[in-house]
Amino acid sequence: MDEPSRQRQAVTRSRLAADLRRLGVRAGGVTMVHTRMSSLGWVVGGSGSVVGALLDALAPDGTLVAYASWEEHVYNADEWPREHRDAYLAEPPVFDLATAEAVRDNGRIPERVRTWPGAVRSSHPEANVVAIGPRASWLTDPHPPDDAYGSRSPFARLVETAGQVVMLGAPLETITLLHHAEAIADVPNKRLVTFRMPVAEHGRVEDRTFTDIDTSAGAFPYEELALEEDEFAVIARAALAAGIGVRGRVGEADSQLFDAAELTAFAVSWIESRFGRARADRTGDGDD
């Protein structure tokens, strides 16, 4: 466990659970979490206490979800030094659902959830989520290779089940559910990526092809909007200003809680008003 800092307040599991309930996390619900551990304070018990507090707030009939992805998934190998790129292509890592490490940039909680007793993981190498609770299997399966964030994905089922998204000190631009809004928005000419990945399953390794919206460079030309910060942060702040979501403190962290369906609907409208078919028709980029 990290050494306590004199500048950071001690925070216990029971306090975190009480704060989560006060923020509005529903017992028996399905909640996706994004966390910046350092913002919570000095948590007694570390990441295990954070996951435990979330499960306490959700109660035994609730389900906890986190976006995991895969630490070894590569977006921009062309930007690597040639030696590194050639070595990677010659012997690419294999995605194994049971052992593949969650992306470290997403913080400590997704990997903690992934390795929690009884955790279930969805099968997509890049977009996979991990879940604990009675609805974990339903939420994570299936996860289509050609619709990782769309209408048949775990993100769609989070919306379907009246789920919530809680941001525990995490930057608003990390709300993964907004990729779902991108995927289902009625917008032409979305930026797509296709990649091949060796996948281990049933004792065999198979090369598989995956195609989806570009979650790295962006599904749309957001750069044309000259936004002052990341587009997801802009959308989330606008949603909060419109009365969608609440703010509060969990531990020492400034936190937000969103209804997944309301946030998705707001984001779809925001995206379509800027990149939708009416705009494309006006600029000559739409369908004839």
What's this entry about, in short?
The chain has 288 residues and is an alpha/beta fold. The chain has helices at 13-23, 46-58, 82-90, 109-114, 136-140, 154-160, 177-184, 231-241, 260-275, 277-282; strands at 10-11, 30-35, 42-43, 63-67, 95-96, 120-121, 129-132, 164-168, 192-201, 204-213, 246-250, 253-259. It has one domain (10-282).
Task: Please write out the topology.
Elements (H helix, E strand, L loop, with lengths): L9 E2 L1 H11 L6 E6 L6 E2 L2 H13 L4 E5 L14 H9 L4 E2 L12 H6 L5 E2 L7 E4 L3 H5 L13 H7 L3 E5 L8 H8 L7 E10 L2 E10 L17 H11 L4 E5 L2 E7 H16 L1 H6 L6
Parallel strand pairs: 1-3, 2-4, 2-8, 5-9
Antiparallel strand pairs: 4-7, 6-7, 8-12, 9-10, 11-12
Helix pairs in contact: 1-2, 7-9
Number of distinct helices: 10
| Percent of residues in β-strands | 15-25%
Poorly predicted runs of 5 or more residues: none
- Name the structural class: alpha/beta
Helix content: 25-40%
Secondary-structure element sequence? EHEEHEHEHEEHHEHEEHEEHH
Mean pLDDT across all residues, rounded? 94
Main sheet characteristics: 7 strands, mixed
Radius of gyration from the alpha-carbon trace, in angstroms? 19 Å
How far from one another are the termini?
61 Å
**Major beta sheet, strand line-up:** 6-7-4-2-8-12-11
Count of domain modules: 1
| Count of extended strands | 12
Q: What general form does the structure show?
A: globular
